[in-house]
Amino acid sequence: CVGLGVNATHIVSTANIIFMSEIENSAIKNARIIPMDWLKKGLPTTFIGLFLSIIILSMFFDFFLGNQSPL
After folding, report:
1. Distance CA 37, CA 22 (A)
2. Residue 67: strand, helix, or coil
3. CA–CA separation, 37 vs 55, rounded Å?
4. How far is it, in rounded angstroms, from Cα 64 to Cα 40?
5. The CA-based dihedral angle spanning residues 65, 66, 70, 71, taken in that order and rounded to the nearest 10 degrees
């Protein structure tokens, strides 16, 4: 779940921190992203990804273990 949750906030992954520092240092006017704006986009995306991964994992759990064919 750690890999699926890194987009929830800007401080979770190194790539997000580098992105935030680069966008703040860019010459683009009003390019700064505040944490609340990141959360508005990141949390729903994270929850949808987690929800879909839980559904897929529960559907194919036995297949991943090698016990039976999918569906």
Report:
1. 17
2. coil
3. 28
4. 34
5. -70
Structure tokens at 50: 């987690």
Q: How far apart are CA 27 and CA 31, in angstroms?
A: 8
Contact, 46 vs 8, CB < 8 A? yes
**10-residue stretch averages of pLDDT, the chain, 71 residues long:** 72 82 84 85 89 86 69 56
Long-range contacts of 11-20 (CB under 8 A, 24+ apart): none
Output the DSSP codes for 5-61.
STTSSTTSSHHHHHHHHHHHHSS-TT----HHHHHHHHHHHHHHHHHHHHHHHHHHH
